[in-house]
Amino acid sequence: MLFVSLSLMPLQNVLSSIVSRLSLRYAIRTSVLSRQWKHLWCDHPNLRFHLYMLERRRSRGSAPVTEHDLIALVNRVLQQHSGTGIDLLKVSCALHSEHPHHIDRWVKFAIVSKAERLVLRLSKYTKAYLSAIGCPAGRPERYSFPCHIFGASKDDGSYLRCLQLSSVSLNLPAQGFNGFPNLTKLTMLDVKITDEHLECLLSKCSLLEFLGIACCRTLTTLRAICPLNRLKHLKLQDCRSVKHIEMNCGLITLEYSGPMIPLQFATTSSLRNVHINLFDINSTLRIFRRLSMSSDNIAALDYITTGFPSTLQHLETLKLSNDEYKRTTSPVRLVDFIYLRHLRLELNIFGGWETDALDYAYLLDCAPSLEKLELHMWMQQCGHVPYREEHGELRSLPWHPHTHLKSIHITGFFGHKDQVELALHILRCSTMLEAMKIDCRVTIMPEDNHSVIYKTREYLDGYLVATAFVQAADQNNVVEVLGARKVFFTATDGSERFYFVS
């Protein structure tokens, strides 16, 4: 189809189409092919600049590539570019307040060329580093994003659809700021901005559909009183100083990671996907409810069965990460998440003997339409041992058929008695089950417990227990046990033997 469409185009348009599909680096290189190719790259729609573009074969003693080399490259390319048909202008380099005249010129170029996407990543630090370490001491002052440029005329910024800012300072002018009337996606990472300026900025982005804010430590309140009727996806990550959030919108997807705070929406009835990553689950209840809670940690199952409001009946996907210190104690309500299709739980279990994995069997009753269940566990080494028959009979809860659950994935399965009982209960109830994967290996880890290293013995114990008790009870051949395997060999006496490896 592409060949047919290109064959109907004039040769010059064909060549331009080919060059536009190349990266900027290779598009510029085509200029040496012939006179016909010399200026084709000058209409390239995607202008991506980063230090990798300047990598060259270095001989011993050659000078390293610096931000000044990149600045010179950007200035040279933008000077030669036609300034038409630009979709993206992206600069990724550790620049700061010492380079404002260069960056301001690039922003003006994006405005004049009617670029639809502008991305400024002016830091050498990743989001993971900023989340874990925070603002490094002694870092240069951030570049101040020139919001005043977007007030010279009503057309300034009107073509911008996507704006991504990283490690900049953002201060709105007292007057004359027209905002971004057609902006649909706004992402800010490590941006220095006040509560009032952010509220004003959001009030001038009426078509906003996605808002992502991460590691913005100067924010204390996120407020949008003006209606954001098109905002459907809100992503908040590690804004540790924020104490309150109030948004006049109806979200479909909410992602939250960080300390817990009150969170108010105009409505929550449209929420379909909720992802929450917390270490203080007790405070999490205040996201949707204003309750007086004790300071004790609360189990994830308590949160699921009592923390979510009834207005989340249309919830389809729920992902919850939590630290477990004690067993669930609250009464369990039944059949609340009638639309929930996918549930992913990440449990960091510190409670030792106080926790009981079998409690999570109630999830099948709370979500009768559940199709995919993921249960990822990390367990503090607390004296549990793999189950043996001499440890007592396995418990069995009352159950009724679950006719929608098709896929189950369990990790961190060490073969403890309550883990075996939970796996057997799910296997027994799930009449339409197509695949049940039990992985003895740990796939999640608390941020402050990286020093914990599991031994091969734990994985092998989990494998043997899962094989002996869960897989043996499988009558439909749907259970797959991962994390170890049998290796067969022929002994010196001619007999076949095997051993386990992880």
The secondary-structure class comes to alpha/beta
CATH architecture of the largest domain: Alpha-Beta Horseshoe
Strands ordered across the widest β-sheet: 1-2-3-5-7-8-10-12-14-15-16-17-18-19-20
Give me the CATH fold name of the largest domain: Leucine-rich repeat, LRR (right-handed beta-alpha superhelix)
Query: What's the average pLDDT?
Result: 80
CATH class of the largest domain: Alpha Beta
| Overall number of domains | 3
Radius of gyration: 28 Å
Uncertain residue segments:
1-9, 281-296
**How many strands, which pairing sense, and closed or not: the largest β-sheet?**
15 strands, parallel
| Number of continuous helical runs | 12
* Strand content range: 15-25%
> Quick one: overall form?
elongated
Which range best describes the helical content: under 10%, 10-25%, 25-40%, 40-55%, 55-70% or over 70%?
10-25%
SSE blueprint and pairings:
Elements: H1 2-7, H2 11-20, H3 24-29, E1 46-50, H4 67-80, E2 88-92, H5 100-112, E3 117-121, H6 127-133, E4 143-145, E5 162-166, E6 168-170, E7 185-189, H7 195-203, E8 210-214, E9 221-224, E10 233-237, E11 244-250, E12 253-257, E13 263-267, E14 273-277, H8 281-284, H9 300-307, E15 317-324, E16 342-349, H10 363-366, E17 372-379, E18 407-411, H11 417-429, E19 435-439, H12 456-470, E20 479-482, E21 485-490, E22 496-501
Parallel strand pairs: 1-2, 2-3, 3-5, 4-6, 5-7, 7-8, 8-10, 9-11, 10-12, 11-13, 12-14, 14-15, 15-16, 16-17, 17-18, 18-19, 19-20
Antiparallel strand pairs: 21-22
